[in-house]
Design brief:
Length: 352
């Protein structure tokens, strides 16, 4: 061995660092391990390339998508039409209908989000009024994105309304014509209607004040509340919502599954009340009908009647108690028949 070779070998040993690559035996096992070793630099390059492509895509498209639901707001439509009746079929738009002394229909539509080109309102002039429908361009935003329409409508006092909306809220007041309202998840707020109301909603609440005429309401999980009513006939159905009625008379067909039913200030009521697990409370007078029926499964039944009320009573409960304050002088075999049935609830009859 030459002196130079000896010196290099010794220098490598002293420093602990070898200038030669580590020896790997020339066997199949070790050759396979070398092939399977990851190429770190190649993987890092691919990762950086993917990040760059994603950033580029966001710069080109993402900013527009994130901002697609935002934007300006303003008046999309402000116009007056001939007629006294309006038919509307809209989506999630809120609708506010008020009366005025003109013999025409005034519509103001305001948009929020996007641009005016994203909204289309179709108004068809008909014999007695107009039909309104809408189309709102879909919103494809990565972030927050919404487009909304709100309607403010002025209608003649004797006007008629037929309104359908999916999730928008409805407010209506001071209309003397026929009113039909339908919404899926929106709330309904009605005030001072003289020709009654037919309304349906799935999960929205129905709030009523100073309503006269016939009342026909159905809801799944929403509450129904009537104040200062002058209702001649009422048909109200709900699944899990509460029913609270003040100022009703004549036929009262009320149904609920798990919500309470409360009736106050009833006049000459003909009762057909059905409930499953909610309580039933009735305060008012009974009509001289052939039969009044109140059925409940696990809810209590409480009736407050005038002290001179005469009736024949059949009250049955399986595990509940029956408390009847009316004496024998109130028993009238030829009077209205009062049938009350409950399984585990109590039955309480008292005078006022």
């Amino acid at each position: 061995m030459h002196n130079e070779d000896t010196y290099q070998q010794m220098a490598g040993s002293e420093t602990g660092v070898s200038s030669q690559p580590p020896y790997v035996p020339n066997e199949e096992y070790y050759r396979q391990q070398q092939k399977n070793q990851p190429n770190t630099k190649a993987r890092l390059g691919i990762a950086l390339l993917l990040v760059g492509l994603m950033w580029l895509a966001f710069e080109l498209l993402g900013r527009n998508l994130v901002m697609s639901g935002s934007g300006s707001e303003g008046i999309l439509l402000e116009e007056t039409f001939n007629g006294t009746s309006i038919v509307m079929e809209v989506g999630s738009s809120d609708v506010d209908i008020q009366s005025w002394d003109e013999n025409s229909i005034r519509i103001e539509a305001r948009y929020s989000g996007g641009s005016p080109e994203d909204y289309t309102i179709d108004i068809e002039q008909q014999r007695n009024g107009i039909r309104v429908s809408e189309v709102i361009a879909p919103c494809f935003g990565i972030g927050f994105c919404s487009r909304d329409l709100d309607y403010n409508i002025l209608l003649p006092r004797n006007g008629n309304v037929d309104l359908q909306t999916s999730s928008g809220d409805v407010v209506i007041a001071d209309i003397n014509g026929e009113i039909q309202l339908s919404t899926a998840s929106g709330n309904i707020d009605a005030t001072n209607l003289t020709q009654g109301l037919a309304a349906s909603t799935q999960s929205g609440d129905v709030s009523l004040d100073v309503i006269a005429g016939m009342l026909d309401i159905s809801t799944a999980s929403g509450n129904v509340e009537l104040d200062s009513g002058q209702i001649t006939d009422a048909r109200v159905k709900t699944v899990s919502g509460e029913i609270e009625l003040e100022g009703v008379s004549n036929d009262l067909v009320l149904e609920s599954i798990s919500g309470n039913i409360t009736v106050q200030d009833a006049q000459n009521g003909r009762l057909n009340i059905q409930n499953t697990s909610g309580n039933i409370e009735f305060t008012g007078s009974l009509a001289d009908a052939e039969q009044h029926t109140i059925n409940s499964v696990s809810g209590n039944v409480e009736l407050r009647l005038p002290e001179d009320t005469g009736f024949s009573l059949q009250a049955d409960t399986l595990t509940g108690d029956i408390d009847n304050e009316f004496g024998a002088q109130n028993i009238r075999r030829d009077g209205p028949a009062l049938r009350i049935n409950t399984v585990s609830g109590n039955i309480d009859l008292a005078s006022w």
